[in-house]
Amino acid sequence: MARSRGYSVTECFVAAAVVVVAVGILVPAVSKVRAAAVRARCVNNLKQIGGGLQTYHQTRGSFPPGGAANPDLTATTPPAREAGGWTWAYALLPYIGHDQLYRDADPQAVRRGKVDLYLCAARRSAADPSGLAKLDYGANGAADAANLTGVIAPTGVMPLRLCDLSGGTSGVVVLAGKRLNLAALGTSRDDDDAFSTAGWGPDFEVYRTAAVPPAPDVTEPGNLEPRGGFGASHPGGIFCAAFADGSVRPLRYTIDPAVWQRACLRSGAPDPPSPNNN
């Protein structure tokens, strides 16, 4: 019987090289597909949250109150909570399919109640070691921190209506991703607290402004909190924003700061931001 011929050293090297090349091609491709899927999920989150804001407006005649700096953490009913400074993200719950959480009489249960729509999969899962339910999207508070004249206003200020958007709805940002410090995820931070009672103050917990340009998340040890700015964890220099007309658009961090600031004003940007003009 003839003996089978084994592989030569050269053939083994060639086979190994082919495998290495194949892996080198496939791994980046798989990573790109995964990143695209995560970004699509983020866009869907923003569309559903934006749709909830539209439904809230249709039902109650305005956008929800943003929240107060020192909310009443003991309130047990929705009216008392909204009057007591709980956030826009809490007020929106029944309009995004979370009516039971909205009506839960236990304030701590609400503060711990996870809402997947409020989390960006590029950044984290619903499980947070702090035990609090977080929010990865910030409402448009204003073009600058000194004049809170965005779409969502603090509790106690007259809530905004669509008719107050003097430049129309297509060029006005309603909300977008929050820029955060990834090294601090899982802790209760001033700019990353419970979405329902995070408050509305100088910590920029449930809102952001265009006072600083949007930028990617950072990973820094210590107490660094990139307060105030929009951003995300998505690769490719992209973050996503929801507009007052219900649309969601991916935008680049290279967007002209002046264009971004105008988009965060109630008058809006005359040329609505898009990936093609920023």
From TrEMBL:
Which InterPro entries does the record associate with it? DUF1559, Pilin-like
Q: Where is the DUF1559 domain?
A: 32-257
Q: A single Pfam family, by name?
A: SBP_bac_10
Please give the name of this protein: DUF1559 domain-containing protein
Q: What is the lineage of its organism?
A: Bacteria, Pseudomonadati, Planctomycetota, Planctomycetia, Gemmatales
